[in-house]
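Thread: Modeling a multi-component assembly for a lab meeting

Hi all, long-time lurker, first post. My supervisor asked me to bring a structural picture of a complex we are working on to next week's group meeting, and I have zero experience with this. I have the sequence lines for every component (388 residues in total). Could someone generate the structure of the whole assembly? Inputs are pasted exactly as I received them:
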Amino acid sequence: MIEGSGIVDAVLLAPHSNDFLTERREQLSFGFEGIPGDRHFGYTKKAGGRDAHYPRGTEIRNSRQWSAVCPAELSRIASRMEIAHLEPEWIGANLLISGISRLSMLPPFSHLRFIRNGEEVAVLVVSEQNMPCKFPDRLIQRFSPTVPGMGFAKAGMGLRGLVGWVDRPGVICVGDNVKVEVPVVPPDLQAMRG
Amino acid sequence: MIEGSGIVDAVLLAPHSNDFLTERREQLSFGFEGIPGDRHFGYTKKAGGRDAHYPRGTEIRNSRQWSAVCPAELSRIASRMEIAHLEPEWIGANLLISGISRLSMLPPFSHLRFIRNGEEVAVLVVSEQNMPCKFPDRLIQRFSPTVPGMGFAKAGMGLRGLVGWVDRPGVICVGDNVKVEVPVVPPDLQAMRG
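Re: Modeling a multi-component assembly
Sure thing. I ran the full set together rather than chain by chain. Output:
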C-alpha cells in the first residue's frame, strides 16, 4: 500500500561524538548497523532519556539509527518558535525529505523505499515518531539570526520527524525518490463477526 | 502506557531447518540475534514470501526473530477450522501468552516486558501482526484428531499473533509475567490548531 512519495532534499552526518550537529553530504551510506561515522551508528545502543522503558545505560537493540525531518514541518516549528528558519543540521537530522504530507505522523513499521533511476537503492523502516527535547535550543540560539520566542521541546511536538532502522542497506543521494508504505493491519473480521 | 498484562504459558523452539514445527521448553534464551538454535535466528534474514516489499532472497534486517500467539485466539481459529484444538507447535509459535485481550491487534512497536519476581528479565518488541499462510495445514492435518473444515490461511486471519525482534536480551520462562506497552503517538496538536 503506497501512501505517498517524496524526494531527498539533503542527507546529513553527525560526525561528532560530543555534539549532534549534522553536516550535509552529497550521499550517505546506510548499513545494517546504521550510518558509518554517525554518532548513532550501531547494532545496539545504550538506553538514554528517550528510552523510557529502560534504566539509562541498558544495552538495547538500536531502533534509532537515523532520523528524518521534512521542510514543511521545520517551517511550522520555526513559525512557532518565532525564528526565521530552522535548519535540519541544528536538530541533528540525517535526512531532509520533502513532499510527504505530515511526515511525523507516519506510523511505526512504515517503510521508506529510496528509488533512483527506477531502482530501489535502500529501505529504511520507521520505529517511532521522534520526540523533541530541549537540547537543540543551544544550537538554535547559536546559529539562528533571530532569537527564539519558544523552546524547541514545546514547538516541535508532533512535528519533529521520525527515527528508525536500516532494513535494506544502500547509498542514499540527494535527489533520490522516496516511496512510503504504511503497515497494513488486516481487518478485524473475527471481532466483527464473532 | 501500560495496555495490559499476561502470563507466559509456554516457550517453544523451532529446532529444525526444514520444518517450522516448534517444541516446548522450560525456558528459552533470547539474544540480540533472536533465539539461539531456532530457525529464525539471525541479525539479518533472506526476504521470503511475507516480505512483500522485497524480491525473494534479498538480505534484510530480521524483524521476525520470534512469533507469539495466545490461547483465546487459537481457540477461535480452531473453531473456525472445525477442529477440536489448535496447538502453538503446529503453527511454529515461540511464545504462548495468555491474558492479553486480542494479542494479534497490538500495533507495531508495542513493547512486551517480561517480569519475574518483580524484575524485568527481557523485552521483545512487536514489528507486525503475523499473517497466516497455507503451510500449517499439512502439520494440522498430521496432528489434529479432527479433520479441518477450513484452511488455516483463511481461519487464522487477524488471529495469528505477532512477530518481532529482541530489544533487551534475556531468558524467558514458563510462568513469567508480561507487561504490554503500546506506542504513544503524541496528539497532533499542530494539525488541530493550525
